[in-house]
Design brief:
Layout lengths: L2 H26 L8 H48 L4 E7 L3 E8 L5 E10 L5 E2 L15 E2 L7 E2 L4 E8 L11 H13 L1 E8 L9 E4 L7
Antiparallel strand pairs: 1-2, 2-7, 3-4, 3-6, 3-8, 5-7, 8-9
Helix pairs in contact: 1-2
Length: 219
C-alpha cells in the first residue's frame, strides 16, 4: 500500500474519531463541566452510540478501499505476466546461388498467433494473400511454400518456412531452367513487402510487423 493511501485511511479515521466530540462541543461547549455522575453517564452513552456506527462505517469504507487497491494490484500483476509472455515476430531469408529460403520465427518468450499474413506490392499497392499467389510466372516446382497462415501458432523460438527453392531438390527436367527461374523469383519477391499481424495468447494485438523484400532484387 502506498503512503498516499495510508494517509487517506489515517485522515478518515481521525475525522471520524473527532467528529462526535466536535458536535458535542458545538452544542454544549458553553456549559460548565457537570459534577453530576448521571451527566457523565449520559455522555458515555452518547459517545458509545455515536462511535459504534461511525466505527462500523469506517470499517466498511476501509474494506472497500483495500478491495479496490487489491484489484488494481491484481490487474497490474496480470499485465506484467502478459508482458512476460510477449511474442516477437521476425522474418529472415537466405539467398544463395543454389538455394533461396524465406522463413518467419518467433523470437519472443511467449506463443505467437498469426491473425493476418499478406504481401503488398510496393508500387501498385496490390495485395497477395500468400507467397504462392506471387509465383505464377515461375515454371519449376517448389519444395515448400505457404498460403493462408491465419491462426497458425508459433512457439517461442520456433521457425516456420514460408518458401524454399533449392537446385538440389529439383527434378532433372527443371534443372536447365533453374537460373532463369531463380532470377524471376528474386525479381518477383523484390517487388513486395511482407506484412504480418499477430497477437499473444491473451489476444493482445502486437505491433504490425513489416519486412521489405527489396533485398532480393539487388542482382
Amino acid at each position: 500500500m502506498s503512503n498516499f493511501w495510508r494517509f487517506i485511511i489515517f485522515l478518515v479515521g481521525l475525522v471520524l474519531l473527532i467528529l462526535p466530540f466536535f458536535v458535542f462541543y458545538v452544542k454544549f461547549g458553553n456549559n460548565q463541566l457537570s459534577d453530576d455522575i448521571e451527566d457523565w453517564a449520559n455522555l458515555g452513552e452518547y459517545l458509545n452510540g455515536t462511535f459504534m456506527p461511525l466505527i462500523a462505517l469506517a470499517g466498511v469504507l476501509i474494506t472497500l478501499l483495500l478491495g479496490t487497491i487489491a484489484d488494481q494490484r491484481n490487474q497490474s500483476n496480470i499485465i506484467l505476466d502478459q508482458q512476460k509472455q510477449r511474442p516477437l515476430m521476425h522474418v529472415g531469408y537466405f539467398d544463395g546461388e543454389d538455394k533461396i529460403k524465406l522463413f518467419m520465427q518467433n523470437k519472443g518468450i511467449g506463443p505467437l498467433i498469426i491473425n493476418n499474413y499478406y504481401l503488398e506490392d510496393r508500387d501498385s499497392g496490390e495485395i497477395k494473400d500468400g507467397i504462392f499467389n506471387c509465383l505464377s510466372g515461375i515454371a519449376t516446382m517448389f519444395d515448400n511454400y505457404t498460403g493462408n497462415l491465419n491462426n497458425v501458432v508459433l512457439s517461442p523460438q520456433e521457425k516456420y518456412e514460408l518458401l524454399k527453392y533449392s537446385i538440389h531438390d529439383l527434378e532433372e527436367s527443371y534443372l536447365l531452367k533453374f537460373e532463369e527461374d531463380r532470377t524471376t523469383l528474386r525479381r518477383t519477391l523484390g517487388r513486395y513487402k511482407l506484412i504480418i499481424e499477430y497477437s499473444d495468447v491473451y489476444n493482445n494485438r502486437m505491433p504490425q510487423y513489416e519486412r521489405d523484400l527489396i533485398w532480393f532484387d539487388r542482382h
